[in-house]
From TrEMBL:
Domain Alanine racemase N-terminal: 40-253
Protein name as catalogued: Pyridoxal phosphate homeostasis protein
Organism field: Streptomyces ochraceiscleroticus
NCBIfam families in alphabetical order: YggS family pyridoxal phosphate-dependent enzyme
Chain's role: Pyridoxal 5'-phosphate (PLP)-binding protein, which is involved in PLP homeostasis.
Keywords, in A-Z order: Pyridoxal phosphate
Family: Belongs to the pyridoxal phosphate-binding protein YggS/PROSC family.
Length: 271
C-alpha cells in the first residue's frame, strides 16, 4: 500500500529483512506466515498503552480481529491464541469460512463490517453476532423482519458517513438523526452504538470526535472506530471497539476479480 497512514509503523507486518541482493536460489525462504499470536500480544500491549495514555482502563477497548480474505488456518491461529471477536466483510465468505471454526470455538463473536445488501439481511442476522453497517431505512426494515422471524437479535451499529463522501457506505450526517430514531422507534433494532470509517489519508480525529458527540447526543455508549493505522487515535477519542486487520494478520491476500484491499470494506455493494 502506498498509504502514509500505514507506513510509519514499527509493528508493520510488511517489513522483510534485507536480503543483501542474493540471487533467487539463495534467497531465504519467505518465511512462515505471519504469527497472529505474537502480533496479538503486541497489539494488546499497544491497545493497553493507548488506554493508559487516554486515562482509560486498560482492557476496556474491545479488539475485533478483521479476518476478511484470510484463510481459515490463519484465523485458527488467532483463535488458539485466545482472540474471540472477529470481523468479516462479506456474508458469503463468512458462511464458507466460519462454521467449522464456530464448531470448535462456540464462544466466538462474529462481526459484520462493510456494506450490507438488503437482500442479504436475513443471512447477516443468522450468521453474525454484531452488525456494524446499518445505514439506511430499507436495510433496517429488512433486518427487523429477519430478527422477528429468527428470534436472533445481533447488536447493531449505525454506520455514519462522517465526511459525506460520495459512494461510501454509511448514512449521510444530515440523515443520521432520523435514521437512528427510525431504527429504534419504528423497527426496534438493538442499536448499541455508531461506527465510522474516516476518509482515507486524512486526519481521522475530527471524524472520531464527530462520531462520539453524535453517539452522546443519542445516548449510545458504543463507538466502533479505529483500524490498523489509527486505532490508537481512536482510543484517545473514545473508541470502545477497534477493528484491526492488517496489523494482526498481515497484508490481505488478493482476491480474484477484486482489489486486495478495498478500503471501504469490500467492493461497492449493489443494493
Ligand atoms: C477491512 C476493514 C477494517 C480493517 O482494516 P485494517 O486496515 O486492515 O486494520 C476495519 N473496518 C472495516 C469497515 C473494514 O472494511
Amino acid at each position: 500500500m502506498t498509504d502514509d497512514r500505514t507506513a510509519p509503523d514499527r509493528n508493520a507486518p510488511d517489513c522483510t529483512a534485507p536480503d543483501g541482493g542474493l540471487p533467487d536460489s539463495h534467497r531465504p525462504d519467505p518465511g512462515p506466515a505471519p504469527d497472529p499470536a505474537a502480533r496479538l500480544d503486541v497489539l494488546t500491549r499497544r491497545l493497553d498503552e493507548a488506554c493508559r495514555r487516554a486515562g482509560r482502563e486498560p482492557g476496556s477497548v474491545k479488539l475485533v480481529a478483521v479476518s476478511k480474505y484470510h484463510p481459515r488456518e490463519l484465523v485458527a491461529a488467532a483463535l488458539d491464541a485466545g482472540q474471540r471477536d472477529f470481523a468479516e466483510s462479506r456474508v458469503q465468505e463468512a458462511r464458507a469460512k466460519w462454521p467449522p471454526l464456530r464448531a470448535r470455538y462456540p464462544d466466538v463473536r462474529l462481526h459484520l463490517v462493510g456494506a450490507l445488501q438488503t437482500k442479504k439481511a436475513a443471512a447477516a442476522v443468522t450468521g453474525f453476532d454484531v452488525l456494524h453497517s446499518v445505514d439506511r431505512p430499507r436495510l433496517a426494515a429488512a433486518l427487523a423482519a429477519a430478527m422477528a422471524r429468527t428470534g436472533r437479535r445481533p447488536d447493531c451499529f449505525v454506520q455514519v458517513n462522517t465526511a459525506d463522501e460520495p459512494h461510501k457506505s454509511g448514512v449521510p450526517l444530515e440523515a443520521a438523526d432520523a435514521l437512528l430514531k427510525e431504527c429504534r422507534d419504528v423497527y426496534g433494532l438493538p442499536v448499541v452504538g455508531l461506527m465510522c470509517l474516516p476518509p482515507y489519508g486524512r486526519d481521522p480525529r475530527p471524524h472520531f470526535r464527530l462520531l462520539r458527540s453524535l453517539a452522546a447526543a443519542h445516548g449510545l455508549s458504543q463507538l466502533s472506530m479505529g483500524m490498523s493505522a489509527d486505532f490508537e487515535a481512536a482510543v484517545a477519542e473514545g473508541a470502545t471497539l477497534v477493528r484491526v486487520g492488517r496489523a494482526l494478520f498481515g497484508p490481505r491476500p488478493r482476491r480474484a476479480g477484486g482489489p486486495p484491499d478495498a478500503r471501504a470494506g469490500g467492493p461497492p455493494a449493489t443494493r
